[in-house]
Task: inverse folding
């Protein structure tokens, strides 16, 4: 019983921590983008206020699938979160996690896609069709990278891959396989839907695509989902390429560095058309990833 | 006794045919009862692997021996066949009115079941060939009985390919018979092992050709789309779920029991895999990619799922070809899981077609509000197909990935990853366009399907989740099969599987999922209640929407993606085969013009020439 | 602690959050829209007050009517307003929304926005400079924080009145609710 309560408490603690950190990161990103554009920018705590406001607002729903989609989106990312080591802090460790995480993230995407298409708005469908196409673009190089990492270190657990880079910082995959880290960074930008790859949420073109019908608590839940997703993706990158960390503070710091870099890169580029984005991913990141993988397996 | 599995369905087939003339529902009911009986009696003989039977027949001086035996592999396939036909038969009881000739459908369906049983228990080439042909012909009639105009043509393509492959099979078998004097598998395997390797390989390739055709692997996949798309909607689940898999049964028999893998063991290898096996796996990879890209382009829901079947067959052949313990187990798992989720998908679509009467995805929409259970079945099945945990589809894909990464087969893994990620795209298309989106005005009055159609879907949903949590149930029989075939078994328990780089534990996943969803539900439930509005009340840039039909995004859903492959898709393999046929006809025509132009003098000349040549040959010998 | 107190203070917190975070839907009806880009970009940057753009009415709190409104656009404006989620606010922008401005005698523009939709406040000028816009929005924030911006409640309470006025100019009005 005590064990169960401890576990539930742990669940909640991790969820709250990741949400809070993710929202903070989003605030930081808005500030950074503002500064790049020579603006003052909103306060760093702005996303917290947004979430609070959204949960206080009225909302409309388009039927049960709309509700179910929002729950599935948030539930999916929370479930994924429990498999990611944050520093030395991990709830569930399983040896096959790294492939699992990719597919668990898909649960959230599917939930969001289903809910939003369930609203009957064609703009949402267009956004989802773009998002799924782009996903095929960036997941392919990323999975090839995972292939080479798993083959190189003979383990498919995130924890194991992190441990394999222990010792000096020169063991980090960032320095051991810099090309791979670069590809993963581009993939990360694509995963987070940042600027060159944000055709699926194009606000002025298709009314922000997948979230076009979400208002009030639905948008709030999707905002929470977004913040946790950011943490998952950053944590994955830090664990795989920056050697993880011993404690949650240095881990958060590493995540912050990656996030700031990704934000800066993201605010520099105009938008790719969707097929050009896919073409780009299959040309450069995938090509480099395959070369790197060939180098590792031979 | 094993013969009863063949003769009970065969006898019932004719009973069903006669009774169905009296009562429209009798045929399907008999099919269901027979399948249930087969399932039950198969369950009773589980484990008695020494069961066998033989007949002797003396024909024109040849002593022919018909051998039948039960192996774990054939037991598994037989159980899958009878289980899926039971569900389909129950499903089809209420939809008999949709058939042109419903008695013929039931007759043929039972005959297909019986002949598949014959194929599975056969231990010699002759029995195998007889039942294989019977299966091909009866399924040909089933496919051509579809209501669509194209059904006949599609079935014809299927028949031509199968027949051509069957001749190659027959020739190789007769060659072996000449050498060994027996049709049985064991002497043949022995002969092939001791024969010169190139000849044995050639013979075995010829023998395996019908199985490649049936499994729908890359250059021979052209029949699958049209056959699936045009077959009666009740038969499509069986076609995709079971009939394709019988091809894999044959391939496993050729590879392991006829010792194909032993013969090529010492040939040139790439990363420890004989080049020929690698070639097979590469064919699988190409199958995955072609099937996937073409599936994304389809506008017809059954054809889309048919292409998805082709691509999923690629995974199975990859696992079988690399033949590591993990690869084989992954393949067998995927084979079973594909049967389960693909028949669920086809049944759900059959329910949609039953109610709406169309297979074009852009002609329907928003059906979730009218057919929620059908939607639930489709959703569960596509989650499994896309390989999203915690369903059974993820486990099998995970095991196959482990097998590929273990050996470092980069390009095979690349194709597998591609097929898996792209499957999100093509399974989401029917979800979005058929079940979600705007409900068409003409479909406002549609109701959920009747109870007898709901039951099979509900059972299949349960099975998907059950095997998603307890893969050990499947691994139990798979380990017996691999033990029987002499492959090392994988470590497993009821809810975990040991991979190459770590274990899979589905209980963990299930717990975590429950926790995540409970938290999300709490967040959702604690917030303010929301107000329900209609589907037409959406953001449309301030414009009023009155016409649901034109407010549904369905046609060419992935146009940007399709644009990348327009050039490739234009050069379809079907076109290649059609050119081949046309050229063949043309050359036949010129051949006819030279040799059979209708001039008696020419014929006289030919016969004289033939006589002279024959005499010369006879004299020389 | 009685229930009303809890409810009241919770509402106060929400009002405070609302005033700090406003997503605005700028309905670019007239020439006033051109004043918004400088207000949003680096010269004046309204995002430092927590005011940002929204893509769709579902996500928006503030409807900014930027300039003259022809009767044809009024129809769309009403539709858009009804799609927004409460609490929602309307701000009239420029003299055209107050009294018709230079279109005071036009046959096809409406003269007084608050006859058709509950306007919280007007920002006068033709056109109002970005400073004026920011000043107006800051006042709106203060109103929201004090719970004085209750246009959506007024709309519900006087539904009859608004509908009558709307139908007087437009004839039949298709509604979402």
Result:
């Amino acid at each position: 019983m005590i064990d169960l309560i401890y576990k539930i408490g742990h669940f909640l603690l991790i969820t709250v921590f990741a949400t809070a950190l993710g929202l903070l990161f989003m605030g930081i990103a808005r500030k950074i983008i503002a500064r790049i554009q020579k603006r003052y920018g909103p306060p760093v705590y702005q996303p917290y206020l947004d979430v609070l406001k959204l949960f206080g607002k009225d909302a409309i729903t388009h039927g049960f699938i709309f509700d179910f989609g929002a729950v599935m989106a948030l539930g999916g990312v929370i479930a994924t979160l429990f498999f990611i080591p944050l520093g030395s802090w991990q709830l569930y460790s399983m040896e096959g996690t790294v492939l699992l995480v990719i597919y668990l993230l898909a649960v959230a995407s599917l939930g969001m896609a289903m809910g939003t298409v369930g609203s009957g708005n064609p703009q949402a469908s267009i956004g989802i069709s773009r998002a799924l196409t782009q996903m095929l673009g960036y997941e392919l190089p990323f999975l090839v990278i995972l292939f080479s990492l798993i083959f190189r270190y003979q383990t498919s657990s995130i924890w194991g891959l992190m441990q394999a880079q222990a010792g000096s910082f020169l063991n980090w995959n960032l320095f051991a396989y810099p090309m791979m880290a670069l590809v993963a960074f581009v993939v990360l930008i694509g995963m987070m839907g940042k600027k060159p790859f944000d055709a699926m949420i194009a606000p002025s073109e298709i009314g922000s695509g997948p979230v076009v019908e979400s208002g009030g608590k639905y948008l709030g839940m999707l905002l929470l989902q977004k913040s946790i997703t950011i943490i998952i993706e950053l944590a994955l990158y830090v664990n795989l390429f920056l050697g993880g960390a011993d404690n949650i503070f240095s881990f958060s710091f590493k995540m912050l560095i990656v996030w700031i870099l990704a934000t800066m890169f993201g605010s520099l580029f105009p938008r790719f058309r969707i097929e050009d984005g896919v073409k780009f991913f299959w040309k450069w990141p995938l090509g480099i990833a395959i070369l790197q993988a060939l180098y590792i397996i031979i | 006794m094993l013969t009863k599995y063949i003769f009970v369905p065969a006898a019932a087939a004719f009973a069903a045919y006669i009774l169905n003339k009296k009562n429209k529902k009798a045929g399907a009911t008999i099919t269901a009862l027979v399948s249930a009986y087969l399932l039950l009696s198969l369950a009773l003989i589980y484990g008695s692997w020494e069961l066998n039977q033989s007949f002797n027949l003396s024909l024109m001086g040849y002593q022919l021996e018909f051998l039948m035996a039960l192996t774990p592999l054939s037991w598994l396939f037989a159980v899958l066949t009878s289980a899926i036909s039971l569900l389909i038969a129950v499903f089809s009881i209420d939809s008999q009115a949709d058939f042109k000739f419903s008695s013929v459908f039931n007759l043929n369906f039972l005959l297909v079941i019986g002949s598949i049983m014959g194929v599975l228990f056969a231990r010699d080439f002759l029995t195998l060939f007889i039942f294989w042909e019977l299966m091909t012909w009866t399924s040909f009639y089933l496919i051509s009985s579809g209501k669509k105009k194209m059904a006949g043509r599609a079935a014809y393509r299927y028949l031509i390919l199968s027949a051509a492959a069957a001749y190659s099979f027959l020739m190789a078998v007769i060659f072996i018979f000449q050498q060994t004097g027996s049709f049985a598998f064991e002497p043949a395997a022995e002969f092939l092992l001791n024969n010169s390797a190139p000849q044995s390989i050639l013979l075995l390739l010829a023998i395996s050709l019908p199985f490649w055709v049936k499994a729908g692997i890359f250059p021979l996949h052209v029949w699958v789309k049209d056959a699936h798309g045009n077959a009666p909607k009740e038969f499509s689940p069986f076609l995709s779920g079971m009939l394709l898999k019988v091809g894999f049964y044959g391939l496993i028999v050729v590879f392991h029991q006829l010792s194909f893998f032993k013969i090529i063991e010492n040939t040139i290898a790439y990363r420890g895999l004989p080049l020929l096996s690698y070639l097979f796996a590469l064919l699988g990879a190409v199958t995955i990619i072609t099937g996937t890209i073409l599936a994304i382009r389809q506008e017809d829901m059954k054809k889309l799922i048919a292409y998805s079947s082709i691509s999923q067959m690629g995974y199975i052949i990859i696992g079988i070809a690399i033949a590591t313990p993990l690869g084989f187990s992954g393949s067998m798992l995927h084979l079973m899981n594909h049967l389960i989720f693909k028949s669920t998908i086809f049944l759900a679509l059959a329910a949609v077609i039953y109610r709406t009467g169309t297979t074009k995805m852009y002609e329907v929409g928003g059906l979730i509000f009218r057919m929620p259970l059908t939607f639930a079945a489709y959703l569960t099945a596509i989650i499994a197909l896309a390989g999203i945990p915690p369903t059974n589809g993820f486990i099998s894909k995970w095991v196959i990935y482990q097998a590929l990464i273990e050996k470092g087969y980069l390009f095979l893994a690349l194709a597998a990853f591609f097929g898996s990620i792209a499957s999100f795209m093509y399974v989401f298309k029917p979800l979005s366009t058929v079940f979600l989106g705007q409900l068409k005005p003409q479909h406002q009055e549609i109701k959920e399907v009747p109870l007898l159609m709901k039951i099979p879907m509900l059972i299949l949903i349960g099975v998907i989740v059950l095997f998603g949590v307890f893969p050990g149930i499947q691994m139990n029989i798979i380990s017996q099969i691999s033990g029987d075939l002499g492959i090392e078994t994988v470590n497993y328990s009821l809810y975990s599987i040991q991979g190459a780089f770590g274990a899979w534990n589905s209980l963990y996943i299930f717990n975590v999922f429950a926790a995540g969803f409970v938290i999300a539900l709490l967040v959702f439930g604690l917030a303010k209640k929301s107000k329900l509005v209609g589907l037409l009340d959406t953001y449309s840039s301030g414009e009023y929407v009155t016409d649901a039909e034109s407010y549904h995004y369905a046609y060419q859903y992935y146009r940007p993606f399709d644009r990348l492959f327009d050039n490739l898709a234009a050069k379809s393999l079907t076109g290649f085969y059609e050119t081949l046929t046309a050229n063949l006809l043309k050359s036949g025509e010129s051949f006819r013009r030279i040799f059979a132009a209708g001039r008696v003098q020419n014929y006289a000349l030919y016969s004289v020439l033939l006589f002279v040549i024959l005499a010369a040959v006879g004299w020389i010998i | 602690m009685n229930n009303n107190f809890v409810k009241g203070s919770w509402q106060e917190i929400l009002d405070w959050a609302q005033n700090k975070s406003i997503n605005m839907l700028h309905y670019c009806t007239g020439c006033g829209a051109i004043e918004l880009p400088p207000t949003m970009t680096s010269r004046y940057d309204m995002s430092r007050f927590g005011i940002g753009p929204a893509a769709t009415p579902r996500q928006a709190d503030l409807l900014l009517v930027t300039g003259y409104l022809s009767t044809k656009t009024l129809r769309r404006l009403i539709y858009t307003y009804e799609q927004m989620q409460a609490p929602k606010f309307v701000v009239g922008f420029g003299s055209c929304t107050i009294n018709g401005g230079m279109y005071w005698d036009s046959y096809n523009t409406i003269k007084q926005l608050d006859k058709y939709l509950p306007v919280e406040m007007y920002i006068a000028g033709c056109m109002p400079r970005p400073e004026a816009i920011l000043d107006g929005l800051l006042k709106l924030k203060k109103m929201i924080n004090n719970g004085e911006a209750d246009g959506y409640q007024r709309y519900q309470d006087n539904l009859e009145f608004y509908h009558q006025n709307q139908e007087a100019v437009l004839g039949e009005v298709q509604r979402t609710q």
User: Anything to note?
Assistant: The helical segments of chain C are 3-20, 36-40, 71-83, 95-99, 130-145, 151-157, 159-170. Residues 3-20 of chain C form the longest helix (18 residues). Chain C has one domain: 22-170. The first strand of chain C starts at residue 22 and ends at 27.
